[in-house]
Structure formats: structure tokens, C-alpha cells
Amino acid sequence: xxxxxxxxxxxxxxxxxxxxxxxxxxxxxxxxxxxxxxxxxxxxxxxxxxxxxxxxxxxxxxxxxxxxxxxxxxxxxxxxxxxxxxxxxxxxxxxxxxxxxxxxxxxxxxxxxxxxxxxxxxxxxxxxxxxxxxxxxxxxxxxxxxxxxxxxxxxxxxxxxxxxxxxxxxxxxxxxxxxxxxxxxxxxxxxxxxxxxxxxxxxxxxxxxxxxxxxxxxxxxxx
Length: 223
What we know:
Blueprint: H1 2-7, H2 9-15, H3 32-61, H4 75-82, H5 88-122, H6 126-133, H7 139-156, H8 159-179, H9 189-222
Helix pairs in contact: 2-8, 4-5, 5-7, 8-9
């Protein structure tokens, strides 16, 4: 039913993590008002086409009983059992997964480090201002700091725990950014209000289900 679909929302949101980081390209892209939205639209469209092609290819080439183990069975193992003569398929899937993870982490690290630096520059603290002025903290240090946090999280936390917790914190951030659309003054204000309300309803559902998932994860860790 619909409950099971929404309960998978946190994992789906985690899969799209990284697309929002295209906004960090604005300072370095020529004519960003035109090219960045175009790049975002084409990148999402390209990923959707590749994803559906890959999934439908698996569904039509591999019998459903091979997936009886659910998410606990890696796709590489399924391919090795279904196509024992084509072991290179497992390597291709693994290579694609590595590129996907590295690409997402690359975009997230740069976007978060840029945001962290800009926030520190606005903090009214004498210590932080002195640190920035003397060059002890700059964009490069911010990138290294964010990279260290990512590596520490990857080495110490369980994969499913990270998915639940990250989704729980990132959805409110998206929701707050959507609210800003209500205060934009343009000719399509009515259309923006309708889209914003619809998006806020979806965001509320995602906050609820990601909150449940994060709560279950935390309780399992405490046990």
C-alpha cells in the first residue's frame, strides 16, 4: 500500500542527494542564471533515463525468484548466480556504484564546505573572525574538514543508519528552502503558491516517515 511506498521515502531521498549541490556552481559557471538550471534539468533527466533502463533491464532479464532475499542480497551476488558465465557484469555494477558514490560525495563536500565557510564569515565572534583573518581557516581547510567528517561517518556508522539520519535532517532543510518561494514577488505568484503548498505537503510526509525511520535506527543503536 501507500504506507510502504512512503516508508521507502528516506532511501529515495538519499538516492537523490547531490543534485541540490549544483547550486554551488553559480560562482564559477558562465551565465549561471541560464546554464545552471539547464544543467540541473538535463542531469536529472539523464539519471532518470539511465536508472529506468538499468532497472527494467534487470527485471526482464532476471527471474523474480533471484531477488527473494530482498535488499539483504547484493545485486552483484544476484548477477553471479543468474549469469555465472558473465562475471564481468558484477565488476561493471561495482564500478558504476563506486563512481556514483564518489561523484555524490565530491559534489556534497564542495557544496557543504562552501556553505560552512560563508556561515563562519557571518558569525559575530572575535575568535572566528581572527581565525579567518589570519588564514587559519579558508576554503581548503573547510573542504578537508568536511571530507574528514564524511570519512569518519563512513567508517563508524552503519549504512542504513546514515541513510535514515541524513534523510531526517535534510528534508527539513529542503522544506525551509521551499517556504522562501512564498515570498517571491513575480507575475506567477498564484502558481508559485500552489506549487509551494503541494511541495510542503510532500515535505511533511517525508519528514514524518524519515523521522520514524531515524527513530527506529537510534533505538536499535541504543539497544
